Structures
1.
Amino acid sequence: MARQVQSIKRWPTWILLIFLVVGLLAVGSTRDTGPRSPGERVDDVSRRVACPVCQGESVFESRNNASESIRAEIRAQVAEAERSDDQIIEDIANRFGGEVLLVPRSTGIEALAWAIPAAALVLGVAGLAMAFRRWRAAADGDRAATADDYSLVDAALASEDEQLHDHERDHEP
């Protein structure tokens, strides 16, 4: 009973820790690093867009004509300074299709690319916590000896005493 009360007292601490970690991850992932130069913006946007010709290569890495053309367009839109990085990427995705996005959108069916790994992590940690709790409870169990346990010990001691006395009788002078 004392162990259950102690376990219940720990839950608020774990819940607080989980909220703290999730909050820090959310703040860290949405943190604005301040103003960037146009060159940095072009590089950032071109790293998030896949080359429509190459396999698995970003527009930033690729040196073919299609990638050069997309990079020039990104450079022109950044120079106009009227659109955000996300708007530029959305425009490119609308022209070439969603498959050119190296980072999936966080809306619609593509949001599952973000949600499924996070849900799997949470479920895995919860499953491990429950398994460890069950294993611990099974290991602790009810440690009080039963009448059957006492009778087994008494029978073993009596048998050992008989064997000891028989051995002593056999070796008496």
Note: The chain has six helices and no strands.
2.
Amino acid sequence: MTDRTTISIDDPLFERLSADKPDGVSWTEYLEALADGENVPREPERTNALTADDVGMLKREIADEIEDRMTRR
């Protein structure tokens, strides 16, 4: 059996994590993916909004356009 640890977090944070955690993904898998900086598997109908951190993975001309739009908000 795997060793386990109980953690305590504030209710608002738990609610955010619970809403974000996809069905069919265990809490252990979900938290490991977050800790490793991996993308957590999502349901097909959910999308992730781009953030400034995502600009580096895009083609330069697309990244420039998105960055320009983000700064004009």
Note: The chain has three helices and no strands.
3.
Amino acid sequence: MTSIDNEVNLEWFNSYVSYTTSNNLTPDKGLLEKKQKLESTISKQQQQQQQQLKLQRSQAVIADDAIDISQDAPHLVRLIESQETTEELTKELKNLLIKYYWAGFELHDKLQEVNIDATRKRDDIVDENSNAGEV
């Protein structure tokens, strides 16, 4: 995977940990292990030379279910990597992906809240109707 993929994956894990912490939830141990594995992989990649890094980025596999932008948008990745402003473009893409991912996550939570509220209202109506029939 490319460095863009690793950064997006790491930011996803960081967002996940932050979300679970702020909502008093217990993070999944498997995901935390994947995060540690990813951090270890990133650290190793940063210690190697630039040419070796490019070769390993194309061959590295962090996890079976990891986001792999280089496969989903290979032309975009090549375009970014060929520019002089690679770091800025990488950061913009990462921020954009995280923004839209997080918006989807928040939308999912809001939809769950709406479904719970609708279920409660339905149950209240059913209770009122059954209580009205008892009188």
Note: The mean pLDDT is 81.
4.
Amino acid sequence: MASQPCLRRLASLSCRESVSVSSVTSRWRPVLLPQSRRVHPHHLTRRSMTSTSLGQSIAKAIESTGPISLIHYMKQCLTGKGGGYYTSSPDPFGKSGDFVTSPEISQMFGELIGIWIIYEWMSQNQCNGKKVVLIELGPGRGTLMDDALRVMRKFEPFAKAVSSVKLVEASGPLRDLQCAKLCGEDLKPRWQGTNWTENTKHFGAPVTWYDDVRQISLQHDEAPFFIAHEFFDALPINAFQNTPDGWRELLVDVKKDKLILPNSDEPKEPEFCFALAPKLSAPARAVNSLSPRYEALSGIPNAMVEISPDSHGYIIHFSRSIHHAGSGAALVIDYGPANTVPMNSLRGIQKHKRVSPFVQPGQVDLSADVDFGALVETALRPDFNVEVHGPAEQSQFLFGLGIRERYENLAQMAEGDSETLDILKSGFERLTERGGLGMGRIYKALAIVPESGGRQVAGFQREAPAEEEESVAEEQPQT
């Protein structure tokens, strides 16, 4: 097992020739949802024009069949083939896009993720000679994986163990960006009959793209290492509100009596709104049975819960894959409360500003807080034989991996270059800041590893300090 001094030495290695940072806002920002209303059983109303072609399609569907589930609305807005945000946006990341993520803020973030994977591989007896498969879901521009691979190539035994890199990405434009970053600026993925593929520039390992993680076939001699950074927050959710008649689903309806002109300079008005389902739906009926945390809220008037079935499915896939391999790990980093059930957290981000999630469908990024408690419950099913570590605050996780030592090492290399020093300091502070809505506090890290008697896992050396839990809207009793 790797020692802590060894971990510190890992953190002091690898440096880019240059570093960059953006001063734009990070993706996480809270926004209150509009008031919901009840749906009349005979739902007939005059419909509004909408500002995008996708919005028009959604409005027509609602006019035909009535309000739709929030999950369906989010899926259409984010990944719909008729103009979804991720399937049609060429590059939503960075200063020129709608939000900036941790890997774009500082190279140190991706480097430390690479160090974490190496450390975990060493802690698992170098996975007993198995080949390492690196799997990232939602890789953005490819920056995180690029920084991680640059660190990994400095450790020859690990680099030799890596057999392949697999990226789960449905967007063609983003696949091209990832290929340029990981393989070479002039390269694009090559179609190989069933998948897009190319060789990485770092140590020649092939990188293959998949639309769905379930398409990835792992062999018996492979150890999977999953990375999911700001992936779960973009997965669609269902929302429920407690009423005197029990849980009721919050549906999405067209907002009445609003005319939205496509090229108007007027402030954007919500084109859709929440509507409370008039009767018990199948998803609402199942809420209490999904978790004792949800059942505990059923006695609280107007309590709300947000549930992500897709998140449940991905955690099952991670845990089952690690269990079957007897090795590997999954690292999830995202934003959300550590101990409470998310509520009222759906938000829209456009050009680094908070907007309603119900404006310009397909042109606004939608996300919601991750229910880390639900992820832990799912992973700890007795048939998986895995351990869960965390969630830990991002600041704790990064400090445990040696971000301070890495920052000091980079600063020493950049001595005399005031611009680079300012960039390094800004990145270090943004990633670890715990005040207010600082990324070091709001973002959490969670690891799934094979069961091993509760051994210490890098970055999770101590419990996060117990303090008041952050809330997107209003506090909800802890369960």
Note: The mean pLDDT is 84.
